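Here's what a typical entry looks like (Inositol 2-dehydrogenase):
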Amino acid sequence: MNIGVIGTGNIGTEHIRRLAGHVSGARPGAVFDVDTERAGAIAAAVGASVHREAHDVIDDPAVDAVLIASPGDTHAELVLACIAADKPVLCEKPLATTSGAALKVVEAEAAHGRRLVQVGFMRRYDPGYLQVKSVLDSGQIGEALMLHCVHRNPSVPPTFTTDMTLTDSVVHEIDVTRWLLDQEIVATTVLGGRQSPLAADGLRDPKLVLLETDAGVLVDVEIFVNARYGYDVRCELVGATGTVTLDTPSTGTVTRNGGRAQPIHPDWQERFSQAYVDELQAWVAGLARGVTGGPSVWDGYAATAVAEACISSRGTRTTVDLADRPSLYRSTP
Ligand SMILES: NC(=O)C1=CN([C@@H]2O[C@H](COP(=O)(O)OP(=O)(O)OC[C@H]3O[C@@H](n4cnc5c(N)ncnc54)[C@H](O)[C@@H]3O)[C@@H](O)[C@H]2O)C=CC1
Ligand SMILES: O=C1[C@@H](O)[C@H](O)[C@@H](O)[C@H](O)[C@H]1O
């Protein structure tokens, strides 16, 4: 499979390297980035060609499938072009930054009649989250009652906005909640509270997000993107007869001088490195069989709709109103 990649920043470059060296059955064949120097550097490193426009990648007959890793507000338009060209696409999260834009993608793919799009919610491929899901599904802890989540980033670039803490960061917990519980989120309340002195001017950080599902499960998420000490993503799912916990993986405990240190990952690149490879490998394996699975545009739309309600909340309970779910998305492949 010859993969065309649009966006060669942080994650785009890493995905290209993974496609070149860690995913069987695929190679990065063509790339585009508005930053032509950046695109040229990674293309030269992996032997890919550089295109002049994003649409040249999508329309390139030698490109079997497209991977979109440009900023979130560019995604919906590019995914629509892939659907129009009948080309499979893995689109990094978020599918879109507004629910209206995401819904247009849902409608376009539903009208197309078969799935072409996978959304990059890679936590569904993380061995830790998979274990949490398998414990819940096995019935060992009874029915799910509550989910507690922590999502801490050491820092964010100056371009990162308060809205992005919800659309770019909490969107992962929104997807994890829907996937783990197989329930829709119907309401949210977001509280600001005391702010970090280390947050950039105008950035509301940290925040507490409360999500309510259609089955009444309550989910709390601490989002804190200036935690400084490292990358810390955890959760505890509380069931009727027990709990299952996903801890921050340690990278090697050092015991010395009367003390014990447990290093943790510096950022998402290291923490989820295996999940990204497994996500890409599953996508490519599906492509070879002519099947697109994994998180769908419905999942992308629902997640963006919830994130949008979080943005509107500002301390008050805000409901989430989803459109009707097309039959294409009623069963997960
Ligand atoms: N699944 C995950 O855990 C992660 C997902 N992401 C997602 O990946 C996307 C990219 O994030 P980063 O790589 O961190 O950002 P980045 O800012 O490092 O890279 C974005 C790249 O896109 C390029 N670009 C901007 N406009 C473009 C356009 N119209 N067409 C083509 N290229 C364009 C920029 O020049 C830059 O090289 C975002 O949607 C983000 O939410 C990012 C990090 C982790
Ligand atoms: O997707 C990601 C980033 O875009 C986002 O900015 C971070 O907060 C997340 O931890 C990371 O997984």
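Residues 153, 168-169, 172, 268 surround ISE (ligand 2) (CB under 6 Å).

More examples are in the samples folder.
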